[in-house]
Structure formats: C-alpha cells, structure tokens
Amino acid sequence: MRGHCLCGKCSFEVDTPVLSCVSCHCESCRRQCAAPMTTYFGIRDGNWRWTGEAPKLFASSPGVERSFCPHCGTPMSFRSQAMSDVMHLYVSVLENPEELQPTLHVAYEEKLPWVQLNDGLPSCFGPDYTKVQPLPD
User: Per the domain annotation, does 46 fall within a domain?
Assistant: First the structure.
C-alpha cells in the first residue's frame, strides 16, 4: 500500500498485513486532523518506509509524536511511546483508502455528542486498541 500528503512531497509504502485499523475519537486526533474523528492503521517498524520527504514531527503530549507535511500541512501519522515499535498512519492519506476498514472505535468516551454511529463496531475506553475494555451497556 502507498500513501501521500496533499501536495505529494511526503509519501510512504507499507507492507501488509497491518496490525489494526481503528477510528479514534480522542481530542488530540480530532484537533490534529480537524475532523470529528479519524481512522488510522498500525504497522510495525520495518514494514513501512518514507519514500518521499519525511514529515515534520510535533510532540503533542507526553510520549506522543505526531507528524505532518511541512509544505501542505497534511497530518500523516502518530506514534506513542506505549507502542514504540508501531507507526500509526492515517487511512485518509492512502492512495486506496477503501482497502482498509476500521474494526473498532477507540477513545469512545471522548466522542462528540452529535456524532451518530450505527456501524455496529465495538467501542472501547482510551486509545490503546491492544487493551480493549468494552464500554458498559
């Protein structure tokens, strides 16, 4: 799979399979992507590479780095120290984003109240999809 920013200067390739594909509702992701939620996929280091210019990094909170294209501003990724060997790239920057489909909503407790979801996907507290704790009914 391949992806790139709006201007095409920051680009990457990914070797499948990916580890996960989730939709995140946390405030940090919403603010970085200027969207009510965002969908990203996790890929282990060694299974992805920048093929164009590497994006700029921003330390958005303790232990979290986010990246963006320094030319057009497109959000590209985030990395958490909690999962330091995994890069999380945004599905929307893939050349063929339809190839991936989310399987979980994370940080659901931060979901904006006007977002209505009827996709049948499970939801969990917090952003760590490796430690799923389903929301109470």
Answer: yes
